[in-house]
Amino acid sequence: MKILVIGAGNMGLTYSEGMATSPLLSNHNLRIFDTDPKKRLALDEISHFDVFANLEDCLPNADLVFIAVKPYHSDDLFEKMKPMINQSQIFISLMAGVTIKSIQDRLGAKKVVRTMPNLPAQVGKGVTSYTESEEVSRIELLMIRNLLDTTGESIHVDTEKFVDASTGISGSGPAYVFYFMQSMLEAALKMGFSDYDSKVLVSSTFEGAVELFNQSDLTPESWMDRVASKGGTTRAALDSMDDNNVKELIKEAAYAAFDRAVELGK
């Protein structure tokens, strides 16, 4: 099977690295197309990639095509791709806010899978939600899921509404975590800890809390109740957050990302 990734940015390269070891490649190198000569030069040094500067050399005979460019680059790209594609090919979009119908109409393709990846895919801890056009078969979808799983986990959703919704949770979600971490780092520094100690305190706390959550059936609320005793230090912190409406603000932030994903799709 011939797999082509168009775009070697953060997400394109992340999925390329993950998929390059998949048995679905059947001893073929993964193909990458990018317009940047410097990127191509660097990628040429990687033995499991075949790197291309021209679409006509790699697109027409590709079986699966992952599109990993910025959404605003898609119009020009699709115009160039359209004369070279065939209806047996499957196109998997990693672009935020670009609907299946939009891809079908502009590219002239039938088989389209839309995904929402996230940044932890770079360390094999990603989560990718995905859905497909009706022309994609179950067998083809299973094959695509196996490829998506090379960067972490994947979640099949019934409609594109849930792809947009996952943008507000998992797609944009790492930034919310980094926002919280940055706030705690600044608090630690203000308390007098060194840069190194602040980083250890914050990162280890997040890592440990996530591990506790993953290894039990307890909800986050139950864990908070276990940690926060009446009149204690943790309860003081949680009460401060409640008084400042932090939970509702976080929900509003997630919905803001969701609404923006829907808006981009229009």
TrEMBL record:
EC number: 1.5.1.2
Compartments reported by the entry: Cytoplasm
Record carries keyword Phosphoprotein: no
Entry's Gene Ontology molecular function annotations: pyrroline-5-carboxylate reductase activity
The protein's enzyme class: oxidoreductase
Main location: cytoplasm
Pathway: Amino-acid biosynthesis; L-proline biosynthesis; L-proline from L-glutamate 5-semialdehyde: step 1/1
Catalysed reaction, written as an equation: L-proline + NAD(+) = (S)-1-pyrroline-5-carboxylate + NADH + 2 H(+); L-proline + NADP(+) = (S)-1-pyrroline-5-carboxylate + NADPH + 2 H(+)
Assigned keywords, A-Z: Amino-acid biosynthesis, Cytoplasm, NADP, Oxidoreductase, Proline biosynthesis
This protein's record includes keyword Amino-acid biosynthesis: yes
Residue ranges annotated for the Pyrroline-5-carboxylate reductase dimerisation domain, each copy included: 160-264
InterPro entries according to UniProt: 6-PGluconate_DH-like_C_sf, NAD(P)-bd_dom_sf, P5C_Rdtase_cat_N, P5CR_dimer, Pyrroline-COOH_reductase
GO cellular component, one term: cytoplasm
Entry binding sites for NADP(+): I6, G7, A8, G9, N10, M11, A68, V69, K70, P71
SUPFAM superfamilies the UniProt entry points to: 6-phosphogluconate dehydrogenase C-terminal domain-like, NAD(P)-binding Rossmann-fold domains
An individual GO BP term: L-proline biosynthetic process
Domain Pyrroline-5-carboxylate reductase catalytic N-terminal: 2-97
Protein family (similarity comment): Belongs to the pyrroline-5-carboxylate reductase family.
Role of this protein: Catalyzes the reduction of 1-pyrroline-5-carboxylate (PCA) to L-proline.
NCBIfam families: proC
Protein name per UniProt: Pyrroline-5-carboxylate reductase
